[in-house]
Amino acid sequence: MDIETFVQQSLGSWKSQRSAHHLAFSHFEEVRSTLDIMPLEISDPEVVTLCQQYGVLPKQIVSPFRMRWEGESDWDEETVLKGETVLVPVPNRDRANTGKLLRDQGYAETVAAAGDYVITEDGTFILTTAYDRAAAEEKIWFATPNLRFRVSLIKTSSGRGVTTASLSSEIRLNGPS
Description:
- The chain is mostly beta strands.
- Helix content is 10%, strand content 55%.
């Protein structure tokens, strides 16, 4: 699988159930949310701005997309968790199934971020992102075309200690199947 196929398989609306263990707080959290993953044009102004921010030429990118989410946590039942981010894959032309993933908002810190991805032989997408105060590692794979799993670790900035570990199961509500 390549990054374009991975993004194409991810498009649509997903119902997500996430279980997270926040080790620093000794707290277990359950989050239910809806994810919407929508394709963007390479010429989209937000895509162009993100590419310029990282010095990437539009001809280097493939399959940009927007992800929106909205959900609830049992940790704070009165607050609706929601947000969105633009994601731009930049494949490594010299090494198959590797590259950068540019985001206008990161996962562990809400700042622009560029992570390194690899897609393994079994189709698992692995994204590693270093931030100022943390590091994140995400693994996403499809069990079926309409069921995918995501494991996320938030680590200390040195990458040695884990502060949060989560597992999500995501079921497609609609979109490509």
